[in-house]
Amino acid sequence: MKPDPGPEFWRLIEPYTGPVDAVEHTARGYTSDVTAIVRGGAGSVFVKAAHADGPHVSSLEREEAINPYVRSVSPALRWQHHGGGWVALGFDVVDGQHADFTDPADLAVVADLVGAVGKIGLPDIARGWVESRWDRYTDRPDLFAGDALLYTDINPDNILISAGGPVVVDWAWPTRGAAFIDPACLVVQLVAAGHNPADAESWAQRCPAWAEADPTAIDAFADATVAMYRRFEQLDPAPWRTAMTQAVTAWAQHRRR
User: Fold this and answer.
1) Cα–Cα distance between 157 and 106 in angstroms, integer?
2) What is the predicted pLDDT for the residue at 27?
3) How much of the chain exceeds pLDDT 90, in percent?
4) Rounded distance, CA 242 to CA 247, Å?
């Protein structure tokens, strides 16, 4: 859990929240310095904030910029604050549970949600956000290029299922690229959750972008993802990184059969 940012921060956002009655800090949220549900005179709001001179501010500003275009699948941004050494965003609070990637009922919802993300048109503001994270791990980066709006950070922590419907949270790094990449990221997470690669791909098949993709591009992406995770594991051989390397390797081997 992140440390409390101190009274100066709470005074900065009080014009938006009203007098703060309670703060529930969250353990999740790796692209900001503050993540908390704040209950105040103006109601409840989910607050994300970053130091204006810190490493997280660029991703927070990108999340601020993309929010108007993704509200069909994500909580709405109520307000934003820039100043006093902070960038802070206030979102609608979602009363829901994190998706269970081992539960078929949840997986149907998750796959359809990833498909819904894929149907969002690319806004002009995102045209310069070219996806390139996999490029250094392949000799065919052209296969990963495209004009789809990508989310890429698919994992159980970032998908909430509520009575009002499922939502994707934490748009910290939206990019522009090939439409199949988001469903492919879902496959990686499902294999890591214990599904065999064929079953994982069957869920991705619910996404039009996957069903329409060139299999050669998916093969290249799987191989690039293996190389990426092997590199991550070399830099930090934590057990979870080893597990992810094993998962993506199993998927890539499945693609070669």
Assistant:
1) 13
2) 74
3) 94
4) 9
- Tokens 């692209």 locate to 31
Terminal CA-to-CA distance of the chain, rounded, Å?
43
Yes or no: say if 151 and 168 are a contact pair by the CB < 8 Å rule. yes
CA distance 8 to 115: 42
CATH superfamily of 96-255: Aminoglycoside phosphotransferase (APH), C-terminal lobe (3.90.1200.10)
Token readout for 237 is 């051989």
Residue 168's contacts (CB-CB under 8 Å, 6 or more residues apart) are 70, 73, 74, 113, 117, 151, 158, 159
The predicted structure's pLDDT at residue 29 = 65
pTM of the full predicted structure? 0.94
Q: What is the pLDDT of residue 113?
A: 98
Show the low-confidence residues of the chain (pLDDT under 50).
Answer: none
Phi, psi for 79 (deg, rounded to 5)? -155, 165
State how far the Cα of 17 lies from the Cα of 3, in Å rounded to an integer: 20
Give the start-to-end residue ranges of the domains of the chain: 7-91, 96-255
Beta-bridge mates of residue 20 = 40
CATH fourth-level superfamily of 7-91: Phosphorylase Kinase; domain 1 (3.30.200.20)
Q: What is the pLDDT of residue 1?
A: 63
Distances (CA, A) of 131 to 140, 166, 177, 213, 227: 14, 25, 5, 17, 17
